[in-house]
Structures are given as C-alpha cells and as structure tokens.
Amino acid sequence: xxxxxxxxxxxxxxxxxxxxxxxxxxxxxxxxxxxxxxxxxxxxxxxxxxxxxxxxxxxxxxxxxxxxxxxxxxxxxxxxxxxxxxxxxxxxxxxxxxxxxxxxxxxxxxxxxxxxxxxxxxxxxxxxxxxxxxxxxxxxxxxxxxxxxxxxxxxxxxxxxxxxxxxxxxxxx
Length: 173
What we know:
The chain is α+β, with helices and mostly antiparallel strands. It has helices spanning 37-55, 84-92, 97-110, 144-148, 160-165, and strands at 10-16, 22-31, 62-69, 74-81, 118-127, 136-139, 150-152, 166-167, 170-171. The strands form three sheets. Strands 3-4-2-5 form a four-stranded antiparallel sheet. A three-stranded antiparallel sheet has the order 6-1-7.
C-alpha cells in the first residue's frame, strides 16, 4: 500500500533488517536567543547542506537520517551510519562541509566571538548486535528500518526478547 505522501507502507508488523553493530549519531542545535538569527541561522542551514552532500556521496557511509524537532528551540537529526570509521572519516574529511563548518566555530570560540546564541551537541553510539530491536506497525521504512531495510517481524521474533536475541540469522530462546 502507498501512503498519502507516496511512501510504501508495509502492512502489519515489521522490524529492521539490521545485522551486526549499528552506528547511530544524534546531532543537533538549540536556539538560545531567538533574536540572534544571524548567529543561529547559518547553523540551522548547515545540517541540510551536509545531508545533501552526504546524499550525493553514499560511499561516505550515511545510510539514512531523520530530521526531528524537540521544541521550537531544539532541532536535531538521527543519523544511521555504516560504521564508526566512516562517521569519523566524514567528520575529518577536509573536502567536506562539516570540517569547514567546525573550523568556523572553532575560530569564533578562539577569538572570543562565540556569544552563546546557539548551542550545538551530538551523541554517537555503536550498538552491538543483540543490543537493539525494533518494531513497526503499518509503517513505511523509518529509522533503523530505513537504514537497513525492513522484514516481517516473524523473521526476528514476535517478542522484544526474541528480537534482542537475534544474531546473524539465529534466534536464541
């Protein structure tokens, strides 16, 4: 079935087809002073630019992402990566926009020009196989399933305990 906005909805219950370790990056910003648009605006616009850049270079390792908002002040992205090595490589690649954006922020801080108008944060996780599970009911591919594919829930187990126990095709009960 195709949903309202053209995404194929998988009927029934499904789970992510992820195998092995999963790499997740949460990265975002908080607007500390709404009136300082000239400080937070460029930061707000930087993430879509980086995501477009990564979309044009799938070999860099970004599998999928979800843009989210936590409040009118806080915006973030959940990113799923092939490996922590590819995540590190992107973060440090001199030919990619992320490195340039951080250089600007670092220069401002060093020169005492960071005025605390915008906050930045990230959290990175490497989740070992057997330490994650997922379930989706009547959903298009989303989150972990968008990054790794979607399979009927029965392939990984009917319960969360069974899905957590899934390892490389074998379920331990």
